[in-house]
Amino acid sequence: MILFYAPGASSLAPHILLQVSGLGFTLEKVDLTNKRWAGGDFNLINPKSYVPVLQLENGQRLTECSVILQYIADTVPEQALLPAVGSFARYEALQWLSFLAMEVQKNFITPERHGGVSANFLARTEAGQQQTRERVSPRLAFIDQHLAGREHVLGDGFSALDAYLFTLLTWARRLAIDLGQWRQLDRYFASLKAHPAIHQVLETEGPPHALHPAD
Ligand SMILES: N[C@@H](CCC(=O)N[C@@H](CS)C(=O)NCC(=O)O)C(=O)O
């Protein structure tokens, strides 16, 4: 499998899950500013012009983070990275996937997106960042309450949801949203950051894009 990614973008979530799964994969870095990758025009890989993209051994491609995470988890069902398809627990997990994608991630992605001009998916102006903080904070407060007495989103073990939530929390920190105001989330983030697979993935990806072009 090939994961098309940009450092620190939402592609971090499938990257973490692939690393945890033990599945074989290679990485292709995408320059989101110029929409280029080592093979040329990235828009030929994903006409929607964004990462992540997962390319399977047979050349088929999947986009949309929440779908890619399910594909990876279902490829290694013995690892229980998501509950079994058809179980009620699976629908509860899908509820979380949808919440993270539509309520949390979507509210992080800035309406200031500059399309082909900039890789910047997070707000760069103070006004834009303030708007993001106002939209995202109540959702993070909800997750904080859920995590009371839980080490992971689904309770027991590490799941695809933790790969996703961890990724979104790295964005919160980049936008100077103080996770310290939510005790459970703060603890959760610190504990996942120390996870060997996540540590490895962060090392591999390196620093994310600068919030300001001059940085
Ligand atoms: N709906 C997509 C959104 C993906 C997305 O917004 N990707 C951002 C990085 S986190 C991106 O590649 N943006 C480039 C651009 O919009 O030009 C998903 O859930 O995967």
TrEMBL record:
Superkingdom assignment: Bacteria
Any single Pfam family the record assigns to this protein: GST_N_2
InterPro entries per record: Glutathione-S-Trfase_C-like, Glutathione_S-Trfase, Glutathione_S-Trfase_N
Domain GST N-terminal: 1-80
Domain GST C-terminal: 86-215
PANTHER family: GLUTATHIONE S-TRANSFERASE GSTA (PTHR44051:SF8), GLUTATHIONE S-TRANSFERASE-RELATED (PTHR44051)
Listed name of the protein: Glutathione S-transferase C-terminal domain-containing protein
Source organism of the structure: Pseudomonas chlororaphis subsp. aurantiaca
